Amino acid sequence: LTIPCEMCIRDRGYAAGAENTAYAMGAIYPTLPPGAAMQTIGNATYYLYNGVWFSPAYGANGVYYRVVPTP
């Protein structure tokens, strides 16, 4: 699986329905993959999908999700 440039990742998000989709550490996605489960750790909210952790953040265009190390 080839991981596209970060700009491409932001524009394309994840491949809906694709199996074994690779998520690059630190990459930003406009949406979560279907089935991502919310996890609260300490006072922070994360989302977990197939062993990949996402942290929500807020920007000028609303919420986005960054791939982060296991909290």
In brief:
By secondary structure, the chain is mainly β. Helices cover 10% and strands 39% of the residues.
Attribute tags:
single chain; 71 residues; disordered N terminus
| Biggest sheet architecture | 5 strands, antiparallel
Strand content: 35-45%
Q: Strand pairing plus helix content: what structural class? A: mainly beta
Order of helices and strands: HEEEEE
Q: Please give the number of β-strands.
A: 5
Mean pLDDT: 81
Low-confidence stretches: 1-20
Q: Name the shape in a single word.
A: globular
SS field, number of helical segments:
1
Oligomer: single chain
Main-sheet strand order equals 1-5-4-3-2
Rg to the nearest angstrom? 12 Å
Q: What percentage of residues falls in helices of 4 or more residues?
A: under 10%
Overview of the structural elements:
- With 71 residues, this protein is mostly beta strands.
- 10% of the residues lie in helices and 39% in strands.
- The protein has one helix and five strands, in the order αβββββ.
- It has one helix at 6-12; strands at residues 28-29, 37-41, 44-49, 52-59, 62-68.
- It has a five-stranded antiparallel beta sheet.
- A hairpin with a 2-residue loop joins β4 (52-59) and β5.
- It is globular.
